[in-house]
C-alpha cells in the first residue's frame, strides 16, 4: 500500500537546514576569497567562513547568546503574559462577543483586522505580537478559520509596513539615512525630512487595504474554509454580571491608557525622550510592555469581578496560559536565531545586497524605468535581508548616486525603495517574526510549514507589489507631491 503522506519540514527543521547551508556556503565563498569594496566607506567586506578555527570558536561561544539575544524573544514573552491573562480570564472572549453580538458581520471583522495591521507600525513591531492572536479569535468568533485571521493580520502588518496614515517610527530613521547619502553624494544638506513620503504613503494605506481585502475575500477565505475548524456558538447571551464586569474592566483600562497618554503627550511628559521627541523615548521603547500590562490589568479586573480569580494563584495560572504556544515558539526560535546570527557573522547578506546594488547601478535606462526597477530590486533583496533600515544603510549611497545623475529627487528614490521593501515581507523566511507566525498557526494546524504559509501569502505579496507599483507609476506621471 502506497504512503501518500507528503514530506513536510517542520519550521525548526527548515531553519536548521538553512543554517547548515549558510555554513557550507560561507566556507566555499571564503575558499575563493570572495569579497568587495564598500563604495561609501572604501572598506573591504569579506565573507567569513564558519568552517574555520575562528568561525567554529565564534559559533561555540555564541550559541546560547544567539538564542537569548534574539531581538523578538523577550518582546514576545512579555506580550504573552498580558495576552494570557486577558484570554484566561475570559476578558477577550467577552469583548469579542459584545462587539460581534448576533450580527455575523464577517466583512467588517476582516476590514477591521486589515486596518489595525496596517496602522500598527506606529508603535513598531508590536502588531506582529499582539494582533495575530486577537485576529485569530475575531475570525473564529464569526465562524471563519482562525488561520485566515492570523494570515490576514500578518500580511497587513508585514506587507504594509511602510504605509500608514500617521507618521511611523521608521519614517525618521529612513529619512536620516537618505540625508546622509545626499550629503555623501555632494547634493547639499537637510533635503529630506520624516514627512518626505507622507502623502503617498497615506494614500498607499487605502490602496493596500483594498488589495488585501480583495485577496482575503476571493482567495484566502475559500482556501482556508477547506481546512478543519471547530464550529463555535456566537449567539451566547451576555449576562448582567458579565456586562458589569466588562464595563468595570474597560473603565480601569481607559484610566490606565489615559495616564499613559498624559505621561507621553502632556507638558509633564515623563515618557518622552530627553530631547522631548518620541524617537527612542521610554514610550516607544516600552510600548509593548505598556500594552501587555494594560491587557493583563483589564483581564485581571474582569476575572476578579466575574469570580474566576479569587487569589494571586489564579492570576499566576493566567500568566502561564500561553506556555503551550511559547513552547513551540522557543523550539523554532532556537534554530532560527542560529541562522540569523550565522548569516550576519558571515556577511553573506551584506555582500549580496551591496553586490546587487552595484549591479543595479550599472543599468542605463530612463528615470521612470529605473525607479520601477528599483522597486523590483528592493523586493528581491528583501527576501534575504528584511530590515529596511539595515538595507537602506547599505544601498542608499549607491542608488541615490545613480539617480543623482538623472536629476531625480532623493525622496522619490526613497519612496520607490520602500514599496519593494515592504511588499515581500510576508514571504521571506528571514523575517524575524516568521517563527512567531509558525507558532500561532501550529496551534490550529500541526502539519504547517513554510510551504504551508507560503501557499496562502504569496498572492498577497504579488498583488501588493503590482498594485503599489502601479500607484507609484500613476503618481509619477501626474507629478503629484509625495510628501510634505
Q: Can you describe what's shown?
A:
This protein is mainly α and 484 residues long. α1 (11-31) packs parallel to α14 and α10 runs antiparallel to α12 (287-306). It is globular, with a radius of gyration of 24 Å. Helix content is 68%, strand content 1%. It has helices at 11-31, 53-68, 71-88, 91-100, 106-119, 126-141, 146-159, 170-184, 198-224, 240-265, 282-285, 287-306, 312-319, 323-346, 348-361, 367-381, 388-404, 410-423, 434-442, 450-478; strands spanning 35-37, 44-46.
The major β-sheet equals: 2 strands, antiparallel
C-alpha termini separation: 68 Å
The value of Rg in angstroms is 24 Å
Q: Can you count the beta strands?
A: 2
Structure annotation, total helices: 20
What can be said about this structure in brief?
With 484 residues, the protein is mainly alpha-helical. It has a domain at 103-234 and 322-328 and 352-427 and 434-478. The chain is built from 20 helices and 2 strands.
Amino acid at each position: 500500500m502506497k504512503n501518500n503522506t507528503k514530506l513536510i519540514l517542520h519550521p525548526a527543521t527548515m531553519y536548521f537546514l538553512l543554517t547548515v547551508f549558510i555554513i557550507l556556503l560561507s566556507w566555499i565563498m571564503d575558499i575563493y576569497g570572495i569579497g568587495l569594496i564598500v563604495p561609501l566607506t572604501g572598506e573591504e567586506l569579506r565573507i567569513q567562513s564558519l568552517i574555520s578555527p575562528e568561525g567554529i570558536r565564534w559559533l561555540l561561544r555564541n550559541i546560547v547568546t544567539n538564542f537569548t539575544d534574539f531581538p523578538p524573544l523577550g518582546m514576545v514573552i512579555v506580550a504573552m503574559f498580558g495576552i494570557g491573562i486577558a484570554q484566561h480570564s475570559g476578558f477577550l472572549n467577552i469583548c469579542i462577543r459584545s462587539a460581534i453580538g448576533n450580527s455575523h458581520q464577517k466583512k467588517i471583522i476582516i476590514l477591521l483586522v486589515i486596518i489595525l495591521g496596517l496602522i500598527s507600525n506606529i508603535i513598531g513591531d508590536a502588531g506582529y505580537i499582539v494582533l495575530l492572536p486577537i485576529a485569530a479569535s475575531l475570525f473564529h468568533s464569526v465562524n471563519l478559520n482562525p488561520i485566515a485571521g492570523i494570515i490576514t493580520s500578518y500580511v497587513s502588518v508585514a506587507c504594509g509596513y511602510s504605509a500608514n496614515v500617521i507618521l511611523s517610527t521608521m519614517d525618521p530613521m529612513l529619512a536620516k539615512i537618505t540625508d546622509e547619502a545626499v550629503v555623501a553624494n555632494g547634493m547639499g544638506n537637510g533635503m529630506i525630512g520624516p514627512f518626505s513620503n507622507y502623502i503617498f504613503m497615506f494614500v498607499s494605506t487605502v490602496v493596500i487595504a483594498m488589495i488585501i481585502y480583495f485577496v482575503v475575500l476571493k482567495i484566502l477565505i475559500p482556501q482556508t474554509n477547506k481546512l478543519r475548524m471547530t464550529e463555535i456558538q456566537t449567539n451566547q447571551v451576555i449576562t448582567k454580571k458579565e456586562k458589569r464586569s466588562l464595563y468595570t474592566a474597560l473603565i480601569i483600562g481607559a484610566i490606565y491608557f489615559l495616564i499613559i497618554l498624559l505621561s507621553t503627550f502632556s507638558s509633564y511628559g515623563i515618557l518622552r525622550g530627553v530631547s522631548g521627541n518620541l524617537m527612542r523615548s521610554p514610550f516607544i521603547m516600552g510600548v509593548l510592555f505598556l500594552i501587555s500590562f494594560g491587557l493583563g490589568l483589564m483581564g485581571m479586573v474582569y476575572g476578579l469581578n466575574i469570580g474566576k480569580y479569587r487569589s494571586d494563584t489564579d492570576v499566576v495560572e493566567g500568566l502561564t496560559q500561553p506556555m503551550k504556544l511559547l513552547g513551540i515558539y522557543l523550539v523554532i526560535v532556537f534554530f532560527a536565531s542560529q541562522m540569523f546570527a550565522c548569516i550576519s557573522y558571515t556577511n553573506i547578506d551584506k555582500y549580496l545586497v551591496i553586490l546587487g546594488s552595484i549591479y543595479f547601478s550599472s543599468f542605463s535606462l530612463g528615470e521612470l524605468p529605473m525607479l520601477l526597477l528599483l522597486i523590483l530590486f528592493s523586493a528581491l533583496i528583501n527576501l534575504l535581508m528584511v530590515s529596511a533600515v539595515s538595507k537602506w544603510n547599505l544601498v542608499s549611497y549607491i542608488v541615490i548616486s545613480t539617480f543623482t545623475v538623472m536629476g531625480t529627487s532623493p525622496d522619490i528614490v526613497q519612496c520607490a525603495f520602500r514599496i519593494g521593501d515592504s511588499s515581500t515581507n510576508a514571504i521571506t523566511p528571514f523575517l524575524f517574526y516568521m517563527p512567531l507566525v509558525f507558532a500561532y498557526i501550529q496551534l490550529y494546524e500541526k502539519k504547517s510549514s513554510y510551504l504551508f504559509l507560503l501557499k496562502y501569502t504569496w498572492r498577497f505579496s504579488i498583488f501588493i507589489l503590482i498594485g503599489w507599483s502601479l500607484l507609484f507609476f500613476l503618481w509619477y506621471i501626474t507629478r503629484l507631491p509625495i510628501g510634505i
